[in-house]
User: What shape does this take?
Amino acid sequence: MKQKEKGKKKRKGMQYVPYDYEAAFREQLTMMQEWSLDNMFAHDRKVRYTLKEIKAGDQFEVEIYPQFRKMSEVPKEGQKVVKDNRAQSNLNDKNARKFVERKVNANFGDGDIWMTATYDDDHLPPDGDMDAANRDMVNFISRINYQRKKRGLPKAKWIYVTEYDKDAAIRWHHHIIMDGELDMDVVEQCWKKGRRNEVRRLKRDDNGLSGLANYIVKQKDRLKSEKRWHCSRGLRNPDIRVVHSKQPEKGQGNYKPVGKYVDQMVKNQNTIGEILAKWYTEYDFTNAQVCYNDFNYMFYIHARMRRKREADEDGKEKKT
Assistant: This one.
């Protein structure tokens, strides 16, 4: 009995507190600062680093951050508890951006449609009336699905974001991303509120559709009660996995705590891509950044990768 209670106590003591690691580590470490890292590593403190893997379509992100057993050990800026699905309630701009970016990359790609739907003067929603603007989009999507049904197509997959400025510096408009099975002219004709619209087919770059996703959720001055992005049902969520150890190379060598690799990554940021290429052989490294704080001199590493592609006979890229 005593042994069982001792085991429970031990497991309880190993629990770590959830916190906003991005807010806790906001100062970006530049290559020019690497020479001064000795002071940062002089602190003899055992740290457990966690590695989060986020797969969204062809895009792959890695987040490495320290864990703490007490909230008092966390820098003040990061002491809010943040869950992965927090952005679904649109509680802050940063997490809304991350959520929409990953949702877009997980569900859309080359050949799908991006449309900016605008208003003429006769059809502008009343100032600040988000409900009226959303009704316009509901009607628009209903017309889209009617046209698709006539053609034997399933209902559209879509994500849209509404943008406006309460001081009228930015007119009401909507950005919508949808699957590309319907002709672009038909899509544009379904919008009845204005004619100066932009419609085009999507083309991914090295960061997939992340640039587009960040552009359409760029506005920050939201009311807390407003949800300016919406999506259709059944869209795929990013695949998120958390690990605490990695092999030096995929399938080779003994597993080592993630923290064993952090010092090398931080002291020479050029090695980040080299290390990740050995862990994730099916992806090409895109970019990375290292952030720190002067509260405990620990680090947060965020890296992006892209699924490897090869060229077909016509020189166009295709998935491997």
Summary: Residues 5-13, 85-91 have pLDDT under 50 and may be disordered. The chain has nine helices and 15 strands. The radius of gyration is 23 Å.
